[in-house]
């Protein structure tokens, strides 16, 4: 047992905080004349990281070589390899199989008809979750069909169908390696941290340069984005396999390979399937974003609609994404819960009823499609469009409520957003860095202090401080609002089962939606700007605030609330003095997640005209400047890591204080 | 009084075919365990080891398991008994000492040789069953054979035989979670027997079961052993279970063996106060053998007979029909003494 030395720091602790804060305020108010360098990072000693990265990328592209082939050839080769399955799936779902190129192309085989795709979806749903799931999946896909989003949705689906197996397999292998070799685990952990915290826009540029513009580059970006959680879940799941099962494996004489594939992996099937679900949902999210580098599909439709401010079209494509997301999520969750029941009956027909009916359906639908074209391609005449309707709704709202909305928006902007933005922008970088170091030291010792201080220092040194301040301001305000909305809802939901049931359905659904979708309604009502960004971020980040509050409150030991009731506490006292105190660590974790969600959404709100690091990344993307984008992206990642480490440390401290965990 | 057998006595045992011998076996958890232990030598007391940051799990254990006997290792949680059984199959690597299996030092075997030995010579039953959740009963039992590459038809035939042996016939296609705890452990037993091991390790096999089921499983185990005659190392924390099943018992405390001997020896002559605590509640009649309580044959030959190996509790009902004495016979049926009614009564009343 290692124990940190307990120190009598109650009194000296408060004094330390007061002194540090006083010094900080002193520097902020009066240090401007004395230490100008503390406010504006001196250019002479700044790190030209952006230039380095850009020239490094150029070097990779033009000069790096492995002897037999160059680096660029390698990446192009990977792209070409990935292109094969992608072309195949795309042909299957969307374009049909063709021979020849361009205008001389002759279709050999038509793509799967909508009847076949919807039917296959329903059969999968029926297999994994019964009639209700079959109806849900078929309903979602029919919605996409009827509202004329079929072509785009099939392009998106094709990218996902290629990215998910690769992401799952890659994550599984990396996770196994990390499980087997602790050096690999130590090496990969910071890489995974960065992969998950760097905003996706930031690595779109290097990928674009290395893999070329198009769907395969989007698949690569999707893999980078979706693989880390699978890797983590795999490693964790393998470590959680009961020791008795590994003993069993060794006792019956398993080789290393048999141990992994016959014992460990099957025994951790449940958590692994959760990982697969994550990969699917993250892939969907990323495929939408990756429309910027030529993935096409639904994401491109949303993006295009956003650019020409065509809310109706954007919302329709957005709703199609929602439908696709709900179908994929429920389907993969059902597969995760699926237990392999022992086969009943004999013969191939009795054993594989779903497989056979699927094949039969695809064949029958293909033949029927040849005879009746309407069964092959949904006729345009039957397509419904609500685009005009939604445009009218927005117009109506804007005509009738423009003044109210503007008043609210301006009041919040002038009284809250702008002053806070100015306040943060005026803080000295050196003072903030020192303050962070002090907080880190108090919460987690000198290691944490060094980590947060050096990350904050790097942000300043690479010239990102001002933009980072704007990011922190938007993220901070959005987090506060998300917590102010989310925590009370969480409290209410945990107290009343009747509230929890609908709230859970709503947050479950919200969580499956790609972040892109949140922009549409916000832009429709508030047009572009910081306020719009804030609304979208709050909507996206409120989910973890609710979820973790409920988790924490429901997790409080019922014996303690019972004891409280026995002592005559009122329900209010039980809530304030017992439950919320004990749920504090979870609520802090919820805060942590809320900040992470807010940051990842914030970058996407660059599309609606913020001026922060996200915008920097976005500009770099449009200019294809890898250095600029990555440096800004890394700055976002550093903010995320600093926040994460500090909040996690204080959550740990809170747990230790409550006696829930050894200090 | 049972002394720890001297090392040369063990070599003698080994020569006459003791199946498994552990000599001065140590397991210490912590950094640089091997070097520290070697440096300390005889001075390796628990206190000294703890001072060097090492946790002693098994300390200087010497024992031998004979062909065909049930050797029970009994100890409370944390006494090192589960580690000890894992040292015997090298699931856990010993820090020092020797493990001899058929006079062959397991610690010098290569990984591939260990895999072969475990595949064909050893079977193990686990406290929490360790069934693979995604496999049916049949596939679970056939799993060790599958790992060896035995063809499907053959391994399934053998697995079916084992399933019938443990009384689970008809449940072959069930999944583990569809079975009760007792049934799951029957699957675990069938699986460990599927490779027909020479050496059978049972690590607290019945501890996770309800008392009634536990009793039933013990009876089942006794029945199985009467058929199979395996060499068994059985781990338990339950002294009554140990007394009930064991040919010989080793009692562990803090990683070391405090006493080993037959149940009778341990109950009648506990080596320490610690052992005496366990034996206090055990009825003498259940462990004392007729051979110990009988007198020299004298006077008229009684009509009834009793085996010298029976316990007094087993002999007692024979007196209910009015006999005052029983003729005690050895395995070959020769008379070796008389068991007198008063002696039995005194023993049973004396508790």
TrEMBL record, chain A:
<feature type="transmembrane region" description="Helical">
    <location>
        <begin position="12"/>
        <end position="31"/>
    </location>
</feature>
<dbReference type="InterPro" id="IPR035906">
    <property type="entry name" value="MetI-like_sf"/>
</dbReference>
<feature type="transmembrane region" description="Helical">
    <location>
        <begin position="423"/>
        <end position="441"/>
    </location>
</feature>
<dbReference type="InterPro" id="IPR000515">
    <property type="entry name" value="MetI-like"/>
</dbReference>
<feature type="transmembrane region" description="Helical">
    <location>
        <begin position="105"/>
        <end position="127"/>
    </location>
</feature>
<feature type="domain" description="ABC transmembrane type-1">
    <location>
        <begin position="149"/>
        <end position="332"/>
    </location>
</feature>
<comment type="similarity">
    <text>Belongs to the binding-protein-dependent transport system permease family.</text>
</comment>
<dbReference type="Pfam" id="PF00528">
    <property type="entry name" value="BPD_transp_1"/>
</dbReference>
<feature type="transmembrane region" description="Helical">
    <location>
        <begin position="133"/>
        <end position="150"/>
    </location>
</feature>
<protein>
    <submittedName>
        <fullName>ABC transporter permease subunit</fullName>
    </submittedName>
</protein>
<feature type="transmembrane region" description="Helical">
    <location>
        <begin position="279"/>
        <end position="299"/>
    </location>
</feature>
<feature type="transmembrane region" description="Helical">
    <location>
        <begin position="157"/>
        <end position="180"/>
    </location>
</feature>
<feature type="transmembrane region" description="Helical">
    <location>
        <begin position="531"/>
        <end position="550"/>
    </location>
</feature>
<feature type="transmembrane region" description="Helical">
    <location>
        <begin position="629"/>
        <end position="647"/>
    </location>
</feature>
<feature type="transmembrane region" description="Helical">
    <location>
        <begin position="587"/>
        <end position="609"/>
    </location>
</feature>
<keyword id="KW-0812">Transmembrane</keyword>
<feature type="domain" description="ABC transmembrane type-1">
    <location>
        <begin position="468"/>
        <end position="647"/>
    </location>
</feature>
<feature type="transmembrane region" description="Helical">
    <location>
        <begin position="353"/>
        <end position="375"/>
    </location>
</feature>
<feature type="transmembrane region" description="Helical">
    <location>
        <begin position="471"/>
        <end position="493"/>
    </location>
</feature>
<feature type="transmembrane region" description="Helical">
    <location>
        <begin position="448"/>
        <end position="465"/>
    </location>
</feature>
<keyword id="KW-1133">Transmembrane helix</keyword>
<keyword id="KW-1003">Cell membrane</keyword>
TrEMBL record, chain B:
<dbReference type="InterPro" id="IPR046342">
    <property type="entry name" value="CBS_dom_sf"/>
</dbReference>
<dbReference type="InterPro" id="IPR017871">
    <property type="entry name" value="ABC_transporter-like_CS"/>
</dbReference>
<dbReference type="InterPro" id="IPR003593">
    <property type="entry name" value="AAA+_ATPase"/>
</dbReference>
<dbReference type="InterPro" id="IPR005892">
    <property type="entry name" value="Gly-betaine_transp_ATP-bd"/>
</dbReference>
<dbReference type="Pfam" id="PF00005">
    <property type="entry name" value="ABC_tran"/>
</dbReference>
<comment type="similarity">
    <text>Belongs to the ABC transporter superfamily.</text>
</comment>
<keyword id="KW-1003">Cell membrane</keyword>
<dbReference type="InterPro" id="IPR051921">
    <property type="entry name" value="ABC_osmolyte_uptake_ATP-bind"/>
</dbReference>
<keyword id="KW-0813">Transport</keyword>
<dbReference type="InterPro" id="IPR003439">
    <property type="entry name" value="ABC_transporter-like_ATP-bd"/>
</dbReference>
<comment type="subunit">
    <text>The complex is probably composed of two ATP-binding proteins, two transmembrane proteins and a solute-binding protein.</text>
</comment>
<keyword id="KW-0067">ATP-binding</keyword>
<protein>
    <recommendedName>
        <fullName>Quaternary amine transport ATP-binding protein</fullName>
        <ecNumber>7.6.2.9</ecNumber>
    </recommendedName>
</protein>
<keyword id="KW-0472">Membrane</keyword>
<feature type="domain" description="ABC transporter">
    <location>
        <begin position="20"/>
        <end position="279"/>
    </location>
</feature>
<keyword id="KW-0547">Nucleotide-binding</keyword>
<dbReference type="GO" id="GO:0005524">
    <property type="term" value="F:ATP binding"/>
</dbReference>
<keyword id="KW-0997">Cell inner membrane</keyword>
<dbReference type="InterPro" id="IPR027417">
    <property type="entry name" value="P-loop_NTPase"/>
</dbReference>
């Amino acid at each position: 047992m290692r124990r940190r030395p307990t120190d009598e720091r109650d009194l000296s602790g408060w004094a330390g905080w007061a002194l540090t804060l006083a010094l900080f305020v002193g520097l902020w108010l009066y240090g401007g004349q004395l230490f100008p360098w503390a406010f504006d990072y001196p250019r002479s000693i700044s790190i030209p990281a952006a230039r380095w990265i850009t020239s490094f990328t150029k070097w990779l592209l033009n000069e790096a070589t492995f002897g037999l082939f160059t680096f660029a050839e390698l990446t192009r080769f990977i792209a070409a390899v990935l292109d094969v399955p992608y072309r195949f799936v795309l042909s299957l779902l969307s374009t049909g199989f063709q021979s020849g190129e361009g205008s001389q192309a002759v279709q050999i085989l038509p793509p799967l008809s909508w009847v076949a795709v919807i039917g296959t979806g329903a059969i999968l749903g029926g297999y994994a979750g019964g009639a209700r799931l079959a109806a849900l999946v078929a309903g979602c896909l029919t919605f996409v069909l009827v509202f004329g989003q079929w072509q785009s949705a099939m392009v998106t689906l094709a990218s996902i169908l290629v990215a998910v197996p690769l992401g799952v397999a890659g994550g599984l292998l990396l996770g196994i390696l990390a499980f087997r070799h602790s050096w690999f685990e130590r090496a990969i952990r910071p890489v995974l941290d960065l992969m998950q915290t760097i905003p996706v826009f930031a690595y779109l540029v290097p990928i674009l340069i290395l893999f070329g513009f198009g769907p395969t580059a989007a698949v690569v970006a999707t893999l980078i984005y979706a693989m880390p959680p699978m890797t983590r879940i795999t490693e964790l799941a393998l470590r959680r396999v009961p020791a008795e099962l590994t003993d069993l494996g060794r006792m019956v004489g398993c080789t290393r390979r048999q141990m992994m594939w016959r014992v460990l992996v099957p025994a951790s099937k449940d958590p692994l399937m959760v990982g697969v679900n994550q990969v699917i949902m993250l892939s969907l999210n990323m495929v939408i974003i990756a429309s910027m580098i030529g993935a096409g599909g639904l994401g491109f439709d949303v993006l295009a609609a956003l650019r020409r401010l065509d809310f109706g079209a954007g919302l329709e494509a957005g709703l199609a994404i929602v439908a696709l997301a709900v179908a994929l999520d429920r389907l993969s969750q059902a597969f995760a819960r699926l237990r392999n029941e022992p086969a009943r009956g004999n013969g191939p027909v009795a054993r594989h009823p779903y497989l056979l009916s699927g094949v039969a359906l695809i064949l029958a639908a293909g033949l029927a499609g040849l005879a009746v074209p309407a069964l092959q391609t949904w006729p345009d005449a039957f397509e419904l469009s609500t685009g005009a309707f939604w445009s009218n709704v927005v117009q109506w709202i804007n005509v009738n409520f423009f003044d109210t909305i503007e008043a609210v928006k301006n009041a919040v902007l002038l009284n809250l957003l702008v002053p806070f933005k100015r306040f943060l922008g005026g803080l000295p970088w050196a003072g903030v860095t020192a303050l962070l170091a002090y907080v880190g030291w108090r919460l987690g010792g000198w290691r944490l202090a060094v980590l947060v201080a050096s990350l904050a220092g790097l942000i300043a040194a690479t010239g990102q401080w001002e933009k980072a301040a704007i990011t922190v301001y938007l993220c901070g305000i959005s987090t506060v609002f998300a917590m102010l909305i989310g925590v009370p809802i969480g409290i209410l939901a945990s107290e009343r089962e009747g509230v929890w049931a609908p709230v859970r359905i709503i947050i479950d659904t919200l969580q499956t939606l790609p972040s892109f979708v949140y922009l549409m309604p916000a832009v429709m009502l508030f047009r572009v700007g910081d306020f719009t960004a804030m609304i979208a971020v709050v909507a996206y980040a409120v989910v973890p605030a609710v979820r973790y509050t409920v988790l924490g409150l429901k997790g409080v030991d019922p014996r303690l609330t019972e004891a409280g009731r026995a002592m005559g506490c009122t329900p209010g006292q039980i809530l304030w003095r017992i439950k919320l105190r004990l749920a504090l660590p979870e609520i802090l974790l919820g805060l942590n997640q809320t900040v992470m969600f807010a940051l990842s959404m914030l970058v996407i709100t660059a599309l609606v005209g913020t001026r922060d690091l996200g915008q920097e990344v976005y500009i770099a993307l449009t200019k294809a400047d890898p250095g600029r984008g990555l440096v800004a992206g890394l700055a976002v990642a550093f903010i995320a890591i600093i926040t994460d480490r500090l909040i996690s440390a204080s959550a740990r401290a809170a747990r230790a204080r409550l006696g829930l965990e050894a200090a | 009084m049972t002394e720890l057998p001297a090392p040369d006595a063990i070599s003698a045992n080994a020569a006459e075919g003791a199946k498994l011998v552990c000599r001065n076996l140590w397991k210490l958890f912590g950094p640089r365990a091997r070097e520290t232990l070697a440096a300390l030598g005889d001075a390796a007391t628990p206190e000294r080891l703890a001072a060097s940051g090492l946790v002693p799990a098994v300390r200087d254990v010497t024992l031998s398991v004979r062909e065909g006997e049930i050797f029970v290792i009994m100890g409370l949680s944390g006494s090192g008994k589960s580690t000890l059984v894992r040292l015997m199959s090298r699931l856990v690597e010993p820090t020092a000492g020797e493990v001899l299996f058929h006079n062959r030092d397991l610690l010098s075997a290569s990984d591939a040789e260990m895999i072969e030995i475990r595949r064909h010579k050893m079977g193990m039953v686990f406290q929490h069953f360790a069934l693979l959740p995604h496999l049916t009963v049949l596939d679970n039992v056939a799993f060790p054979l599958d790992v060896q590459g035995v063809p499907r038809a053959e391994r399934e035939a053998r697995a079916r035989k084992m399933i019938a042996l443990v009384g689970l016939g008809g449940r072959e296609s069930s999944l583990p979670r569809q079975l009760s705890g007792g049934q799951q452990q029957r699957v675990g037993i069938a699986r460990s027997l599927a490779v027909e091991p020479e050496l059978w390790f049972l690590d607290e096999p019945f501890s996770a079961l309800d008392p009634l089921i536990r009793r039933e499983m013990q009876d089942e185990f006794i029945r199985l052993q009467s058929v199979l005659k395996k060499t068994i190392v059985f781990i338990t924390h339950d002294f009554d279970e140990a007394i009930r099943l064991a040919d010989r018992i080793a009692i562990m405390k803090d990683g070391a063996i405090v006493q080993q001997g037959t149940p009778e020896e341990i109950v009648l002559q506990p080596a320490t106060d610690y052992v005496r605590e366990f034996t206090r509640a055990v009825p003498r009649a259940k462990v004392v053998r007729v051979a110990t309580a009988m007198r020299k044959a004298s006077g008229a030959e009684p009509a009834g007979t009793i085996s010298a190996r029976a316990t007094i509790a087993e002999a007692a009902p024979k007196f209910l029909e009015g006999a005052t004495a029983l003729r005690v016979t050895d395995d070959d049926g020769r008379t070796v003494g008389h068991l007198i009614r008063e002696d039995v009564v005194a023993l049973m009343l004396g508790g």
